[in-house]
C-alpha cells in the first residue's frame, strides 16, 4: 500500500472514517462497488480495545481488505496495545485520529486537540510503530482554533515523519474547538487545498493525502493533481461516499485505471440480500444494513420509494432480506455508475 512508489499518476482512494457510519456493514457494501478503495473503520478509542469487547469493535469480513483501523487516544502506551490488537486481528493499517473535533474527544484530550501537541502525536506514532508491522498513519486537520496552519500542519508532519509515520491524511480545514459544533466543523471552516499541496512540496517523498469537500472520484483526482508541482498521493472521500454511494462504482476505473466490469445493481442487490440473511440469522436487524444503502439511487426514477422502503419497511420487526429486493424493484431502470 504505502510502500509502493509514489508515482505522479498514481493515487490511493480511501473512504474516510466516520463515527456511527463506517461500520462493518457499510464497508461490506462499499467493497462490492470497489475492489481497490481503502476502507476505514469508525474511530475506536484505545481503551475500548484494551478493556472492552474486542470482537464487537474489530470483527470484519475478509472481503473488506484493504481495511484500516482508526484509533483514538493520546496515551502512547495504550495506543501501542490497541494497535497491536488491531494488527493481530488482521487490519492492514493503523491510523491515529488527530482531527475529530467532537466534545467526546476534547474531554479526553485527543482527536483534533492533538494538533496542539505535535511531539505527543509523534510519541504515539513511535509507540505504535514499535509493535506492529503494518503501516501507521495519521489523519489530521490543518490546524485548530487560532493556530497558523502554515506552522501547525508542518509541525505535526515534521514530528511524525521523523518517527517513521507512513502517511498523513489531511482534512483541509481547521477545526474550531471553541464555537462550532462537530457538524459545523465539517462545513463552516473554509477549505484550503493549497495548504495540503504546500505540505506535499515540503515532503515530496512522503505520502500526503487530502480529504474534505470532495464529491466524486473525478473531482478528487483533479484536486490531487491541481498543483503545477507534485501530485498528492491520495484522496479520501467521506460524506460523498456515504450519501451517494454509487460514486464508488467509478473508483477503480477513474483512480486506478481498472476497466474491469463492476457489479451490476442486480448483483449488488443479490449479494446484499445474502449478507443480510446471514446477519439476521446471527441475531441482527435488517436496518443495521439498509441504513447504509439509502442514498444509492440518488437522482434516479423511483429513488424516493426506494428510500422509503429501505428506511421505513426495513425498520419493521418482521423485516427480512426481501426488503432489499423490494426496494431495488422500485427503481425503474437502474443506471450503473451514474449518480446525480
Verbal overview:
The protein is built from 15 helices and eight strands. Strands 1-2-3-4-5-6-7-8 form an eight-stranded parallel beta barrel, surrounded by six helices. The radius of gyration is 20 Å and the shape is globular. The mean pLDDT is 92. Helix content is 39%, strand content 15%. With 340 residues, it is α/β, with parallel strands linked by helices.
Descriptors:
340 residues, alpha/beta, TIM Barrel, Four Helix Bundle (Hemerythrin (Met), subunit A), 2 domains, eight-stranded parallel β-barrel, globular
Summarize the structure.
By secondary structure, this protein is α/β, with parallel strands linked by helices. Helix content is 39%, strand content 15%. The protein has an eight-stranded parallel β-barrel with strand order 1-2-3-4-5-6-7-8, surrounded by six helices.
Mean pLDDT: 92
Strand content: 5-15%
List the total number of helices: 15
Estimated structural class: alpha/beta
Strand order across the largest sheet: 1-2-3-4-5-6-7-8
The CATH topology of the largest domain is what?
A: TIM Barrel
Helix percent reads 25-40%
- Number of domain modules: 2
The count of β-strands is: 8
Largest sheet: 8 strands, parallel, barrel
Q: Which architecture of the largest domain would the CATH scheme give at its second level?
A: Alpha-Beta Barrel
| CATH homology superfamily name of the largest domain | Aldolase class I
Amino acid at each position: 500500500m504505502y510502500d509502493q512508489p509514489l508515482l505522479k499518476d498514481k493515487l490511493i482512494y480511501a473512504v474516510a472514517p466516520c463515527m456511527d457510519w463506517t461500520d462493518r456493514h457499510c464497508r461490506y457494501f462499499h467493497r462490492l462497488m470497489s475492489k481497490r478503495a481503502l476502507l476505514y473503520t469508525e474511530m475506536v478509542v484505545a481503551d475500548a480495545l484494551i478493556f472492552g469487547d474486542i470482537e464487537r469493535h474489530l470483527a470484519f469480513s475478509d472481503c473488506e481488505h484493504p481495511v484500516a483501523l482508526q484509533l483514538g487516544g493520546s496515551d502512547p502506551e495504550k495506543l501501542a496495545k490497541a494497535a497491536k490488537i488491531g494488527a493481530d486481528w488482521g487490519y492492514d493499517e493503523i491510523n491515529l485520529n488527530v482531527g475529530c473535533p467532537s466534545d467526546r474527544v476534547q474531554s479526553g484530550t485527543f482527536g483534533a486537540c492533538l494538533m496542539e501537541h505535535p511531539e505527543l502525536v509523534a510519541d504515539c506514532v513511535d509507540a505504535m510503530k514499535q509493535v506492529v508491522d503494518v503501516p501507521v498513519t495519521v489523519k489530521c486537520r490543518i490546524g485548530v482554533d487560532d493556530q497558523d496552519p502554515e506552522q501547525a500542519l508542518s509541525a505535526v508532519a515534521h514530528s511524525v515523519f521523523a518517527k517513521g509515520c507512513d502517511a498523513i491524511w489531511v482534512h483541509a480545514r481547521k477545526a474550531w474547538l471553541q464555537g462550532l459544533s462537530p457538524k459545523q466543523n465539517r462545513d463552516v471552516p473554509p477549505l484550503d487545498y493549497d495548504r495540503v499541496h504546500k505540505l506535499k512540496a515540503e515532503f515530496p517523498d512522503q505520502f500526503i493525502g487530502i480529504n474534505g469537500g470532495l464529491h466524486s472520484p473525478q473531482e478528487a483526482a483533479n484536486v490531487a493533481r491541481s498543483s503545477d508541482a507534485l501530485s498528492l498521493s491520495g484522496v479520501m472521500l467521506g460524506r460523498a461516499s456515504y450519501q451517494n454511494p454509487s460514486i464508488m462504482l467509478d473508483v477503480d476505473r477513474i483512480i486506478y485505471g481498472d476497466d474491469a466490469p463492476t457489479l451490476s445493481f442486480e448483483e449488488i442487490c443479490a449479494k446484499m440480500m445474502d449478507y443480510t440473511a446471514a446477519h439476521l440469522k446471527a441475531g441482527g436487524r435488517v436496518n443495521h444494513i439498509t441504513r447504509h444503502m439509502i442514498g444509492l439511487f440518488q437522482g434516479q426514477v423511483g429513488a424516493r420509494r426506494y428510500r422509503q422502503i429501505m428506511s421505513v419497511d426495513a425498520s419493521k420487526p418482521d423485516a427480512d432480506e426481501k426488503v432489499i429486493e423490494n426496494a431495488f424493484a422500485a427503481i425503474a431502470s437502474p443506471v450503473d455508475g451514474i449518480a446525480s
